[in-house]
Amino acid sequence: MWSSGAIALEKVGHRAPAESSNLTVVFVSTGLGREYALAFAERGASVVVNDLGGNAKGGGKSSAAADKVVEEIRAKGGKAVANYDSVEDGEKLIQSALKEFGRIGECCVIYNGFLFVFQDLIHRIHLRGSFLVTRAAWDHMKKQKFGRIIMTTSAAGIYGNFGQSNYSAAKLGLLGLANTLAIEGSKHNIYCNTIAPVAGSRLTETVMPPDLVASLKPEYVAPLVLWLCHEQCQENGGLFEVGAGWVGKLRWERSQGQIMRQKSRPMTPEAVRDQWDKICDFTDATKPTTIQESLQASVSVLSRVDAGGQVEAPPSAAAAAAASGINPALAVGQKLPVSTFNFNHTQCILYALGVGMSTKDPDHLRFLYEGHPDFSCLPTFGVIPSQAAMMDGGLASIPGLNIDFTQVLHGEQYLEFYRPLPTSGIFWARLLPKALILICYNQFSVFVVGAGRFGGTRTSAKAKAPLPPPKRAPDAVVTDCTTRDQAALYRLSGDWNPLHIDPGFAAMGGFKAPILHGLCSFGFAARHVLKQFANNDPSRFKAIKVRFAKPVMPGQSLQTAMWKEGSRIHIECKVKETSDVVLSGAYVDLHQAAEASPEPPSQGGRLQSDLVFTEIGRRISEVGPELVKKVNAVFGWEITKEGKTAAQWTIDLKNGAGSLQKGPYGGKVDVTFTVADEDFMEVVQGKLNPQKAFFSGKLKVRGNIMLSQKLEVILKDYAKL
Ligand SMILES: CCCCCCC[C@@H](O)CC(=O)SCCNC(=O)CCNC(=O)[C@H](O)C(C)(C)COP(=O)(O)OP(=O)(O)OC[C@H]1O[C@@H](n2cnc3c(N)ncnc32)[C@H](O)[C@@H]1OP(=O)(O)O
């Protein structure tokens, strides 16, 4: 009779013996293997008891060990057969199971399937034997859509042990084999785990004192194996130490590490030596669990080094919080480091091209040509600085957040403006507090497909909800084509995620080809609304929300349906070729035309108050009379002693037009030129000829008259002058 110990596991799902058609192949020694064989047979499994009957040194061969266990099982009414083949003949082992218990597909594996437990056999064939037997069983498992594999490694393999080099190598090799089997098997419901047991057995009795061997009983290991083989157990790819009635799980840990290479400088051994403490510092260590997570660190280093930017390892959230004055306790609530984002008209134009703007459409020129009288930045460019903050070390630096980046999909996006975007400037981006939000506010939600199972609330009350469109025909529908290279172009705005360009990476994420950035389709839909309902006036844009419902492939056509409900424009965007809804629950909130531009942009753009020019004049007069003379000569200004320009400026804030009332040639002109600070100073100091500056593109002029008359100066960052 079986002991009542069997009941517990039956309760958690093992089938009762009469219903069971498990097939268990057990490589048996008199220790652990016997224990497994008895335990599984007790629960109705059909057991192949395999043992070459070798001794601890791998010598000898006898059928006695296997026969004894088979007898024991049969005496208690269980099903077992002995097998004496080497594991190198894995196929024979499977065949003996088939012969004894019938055709696997029909009688053995219909409900539960296979179970393999590898136990010590002969050291030199640990690895190969495990591989061969698994390979022989693999297709049967796949057919049955069920399989559980347990590899047995050893502390000697995990940690090393004096005098056991060959054994250690074979044993840790098993872990590598198990890790890959776990990945390959998972979609077929074949799970593979590894255990490192400490138990008294025929093999350990020669190296452990007898009383220790006696107390480390095999029955303290078998329950773990039974649970890992259970149909309800979802553990896959795990490594466990087990013994003396205790079970613990092991995992890899990786230090934050240190980047020692800079774009223009080679990496040297001296740099490695000097940073050794940082390399080995496990503060805020991460715990990568997949090869993608491992690779992601290198990919992010490459982009950071190539960008010529920061070469330190990303600061931990806590460190960054401390450095930025945020209470480190809040960092536990996943505050991101502060990040700065510098941009000018180049980024604005690149972004506009990335979201499908084209010179084919005359309306688009104001977003594509910095010399256009109404040159503006598309409002949805507002996502770029905060996305850069998230991508560039932001997400990766959150302690304890391990993400497989092949599985990251953008879920939703909300963007709200506090003032219109300038066409150049510096953004400081970080998560809340709200008081810091001066220009715009972004809310991202990201899906990590297949991560799940961490419980907790499914959403946050702070998340802006998607809103369904009204149930009536749309007021407008715009169809627009993305190009085959849309993602290749869009990524230049800063989302370097390989998912959008690298076929191999996309395949790891389960896609047939690289997919379009969610924020690219978002940009398409937003500008459809901008044109249709806001006359392409970016200052009318108040907020936008979208949910990314399905991926878009570059080259597909987007069809944006729009419903106007007061100042809210509901949007639904479909892929024309498939009719799949790709943006759902989306809407744009617009300012009424009259309430647009509540205040002018503080820097850049074309709205500059005459204060700016007075300030420039003051600074120039501070430098000295020589400079004043040169400026007056070059620009036709008359800088007074007080630093005021004699030219009279009027600025029409409402229409955004600056005009010179009285210039050296008199009369009213309406021109703009833009020049970077340093180039401006070169011009006024006579070092740079304005004509040359003009033709080299350093000085950009709007208008069509002589340079000396063009005197609305827009400085990139006049505060620095
Ligand atoms: C880090 C910086 C910024 C982040 C940028 C990220 C980096 C970028 O480079 C990555 C990208 O741009 S990826 C491209 C854009 N995104 C996509 O293509 C995703 C498209 N969406 C999908 O495939 C599915 O909706 C999918 C797979 C997301 C979900 O589909 P299903 O699993 O089938 O879900 P379903 O059964 O329909 O619903 C389950 C619950 O989830 C809610 N839900 C569905 N889609 C959602 C979405 N997009 N966002 C938020 N919630 C969503 C459903 O409402 C449902 O919830 P509940 O059960 O509570 O009702």
TrEMBL record:
Any one GO BP annotation for this protein: fatty acid beta-oxidation
InterPro entries in UniProt: HotDog_dom_sf, MaoC-like_dom, MFE-2_N, NAD(P)-bd_dom_sf, Peroxisomal_Beta-Oxidation, Sc_DH/Rdtase_CS, SCP2_sterol-bd_dom, SCP2_sterol-bd_dom_sf
Stored PROSITE patterns: ADH_SHORT (PS00061)
Gene Ontology terms: cellular component: peroxisome
Pathway: Lipid metabolism; fatty acid beta-oxidation
Family: Belongs to the short-chain dehydrogenases/reductases (SDR) family.
Full protein name: Hydroxysteroid (17-beta) dehydrogenase 4
Native species: Takifugu rubripes
